[in-house]
Amino acid sequence: MTVPKHPDNDVTLNPTGNATIFDVLDAGEPSRRKFLRGSAGAASMAVITGVGLDALTNEAQAYTSASPSVSIGFTSVPAVNAALTTVPIPPGTTYDAVLVPPGYKAEVLIAWGDGFVGATAPNMDPTQPQTEANQLRQFGNHVDGSHFFPFPATGTTGESSDRGLFVVNHEYTDEGLHRNTLTVSATPSLAEVRASQAAHGVSIVEVRKTGNKWGIVKSSPFNRRISTLTPMRISGPAAGSPLMRTAADPTGTQVIGTANNCAAGYTPWGTYLTCEENFNGYFGRKTAGTNTPLQNRYGLSSAGFGYGWHVQDPRFDLNDTPNEANRFGWVVEIDPFNPRSVPVKRTALGRFKHESVYTVIGDDDSVACYSGDDERNDYIYKFVSSKKFIKGNTAHNRTLLDEGTLYVAKFNADGSGTWLPLVFGQGGLTTANGWVDQADVLVRTRQAADREGATMMDRPEWIAVHPTTREVYVTLTNNNRRGSSTPSSINPNGTSTAAAARPPVDAANPRIDNIYGHIIRWTETGNDPKATTFTWENFILAGDPGKVGRPAFVPSSVDNSTVPPTVIPAVGSTTWPAGVPASQYAGNINGDIFGAPDGLWFDSNGRLWVQTDQQGDALGDWERIGVNTMSCVDPVTKQVKRFLTSPPNCEVTGVTQTPDGKTFFVGIQHPGEDWGGGTTPSFTRNSSWPDNGRNGPTTLSANAPVKPRSAILAITREDGGVIGA
């Protein structure tokens, strides 16, 4: 997005004797202990506490080589745009809401600042600054990736669709909203820093459906906040490395907190994977200093993104604690069913701006994890565990992400691809080229991929894998540096600054000034997740066909201002540079148009759901596309139908479902962003959602809205049917 703190990137879990689920239940209220033990039964409880936990969280599936076209049974929602509707935006209208098709309802489940950790947890006072103490008992800010972990139940599936743990990331904070000030100081107080740190991380909240209404269980002993203040363990090859050691942690195996938790994933053995993305923005310097090549390559700077944490917390000062930044940028594994468990940073999966992670189990029980590095011109990765998944052996399975091989993708022009291993001593990752050991390779993952010659991509974001074909899909959101008149590449010696390259178009990234983005998909050779080769295609080129020859394709940003007009075809031209058809640059969507694809997810029936993250004001290049959306795509016919439109100036992100497919949980992040623009800043200048009540009551909707809040929606069909069918 356009605020500094949410850039477009244009610039065993618990080996101790900690509590089991029975211990947690026994600490809760007696009536709840009786309910869980009685309704689930001893056998079902054993599923959670022992080896059967795997069964609760989408265990390994049987794959087939083909999948039929899926039905998309709802009526498309119109694009929300002043030019296309009789009701304009910005808000003050019914369009400051989440709109879903006829026969569906979208209701707010929980929003930033709602108290949920304990029955007496207070709800936020939107007229006051947030405090650390309150925020650690309240739902965090700016939601992103999520997952629903069902409780056990009687029946054929053994999973409840009415009760579970909803786990969700909190990517960042808007410090003006958080500190309740229209003018944000670059030198915050320690109390302001701690409150901001408390709003990051992850929320784990028990949710339950009663009748036709979803709600949270405030008294649940499972409810938990994990934040930038939570102790964590470092595991895998980089644990203990000199690059990971600090004065406070001379062992390099313990770290405090996680930050900028963007998209997420889950494992077949019952754990949640949260991804650290734009961690670089929290670091800075109080006094002058010079970046190392490693710091440049990861986008670190003396000013950071304006949080000012480094002013009060020496951990985030690049001069005081230079190695602290190396301890962020990882995938963190969390046990949602054990509130006393210690989160673990899994270093074998590499260090970069992880947008998401998707775990796949092969036919031979091999384990692979896919992840994108969300920055212009960065890469797509795959980790293959050296161990096999063993169904029911939870202790073993919780070691699977510590040993294996990390690969980076190279996309060839002929539609083939290769996974390049990032292994110390192989290829260019040798002592002669300055590499020390495998820990060094993983801490400097981006530079290792530079050396091996991976394909620069247009901001790889979410990754999803088809539930029956095992095809892998990834969103490439945008890249305004693609196709500049003076092309440049990332230096193989690792000395480039993050996002500084200006790559030419290529087969996998075919559009200059790619503001609309695209979706790419591939199939591993032999349909084997551990294969080292694959075949790929551009699945969808997003955009607006009505904007062929659009002025904005003459790059207007500062980054591309040097492109001479002769490079850009005139309006009505039939071809673009390198003979690429103009229609390809305008998009090839079959159905409802969208741009800047970000969130990506398959439901259990094989429907692909695409969420978008564009500027959200439905102006300029987005006037026909409208505000941000969630659409459903048939992976066979590529038909697109718009399912949801959002409030203005937000991002639609995070989607997960109950096992029966009858409830979706969807996140709305930073509604009303850019409230500080114009001559009269106001928190509700662009949106007053969700407390305007247009998607049901909230904890604060009884009064006039004070500020917009990120929130989670529970979406259901009025007839109780399966979503999308």
Describe the structure.
With 725 residues, the protein is an alpha+beta fold. 11% of the residues lie in helices and 26% in strands. The protein is built from eleven helices and 31 strands. The strands form six sheets. A nine-stranded antiparallel beta sheet has the order 13-14-16-17-18-23-22-21-20. A six-stranded mixed beta sheet has the order 8-7-12-11-10-9, with no helix packed on it. Strands 2, 3, 4, 5 and 6 form a five-stranded antiparallel beta sheet that branches. Strand 25 and strand 26 (608-612) form a beta hairpin.
- Which structural class should the secondary elements be placed in? alpha+beta
In whole angstroms, the N-to-C terminal distance is: 32 Å
Number of strands: 31
What average pLDDT do the residues reach?
A: 87
Largest sheet: 9 strands, antiparallel
Strand content: 25-35%
Helix content: 10-25%
What's the Cα radius of gyration?
24 Å
- Spatial shape: globular
Number of helices: 11
Name the poorly predicted regions.
10-53, 55-62, 85-92, 549-578
Walk across the major sheet and give the strand order: 13-14-16-17-18-23-22-21-20
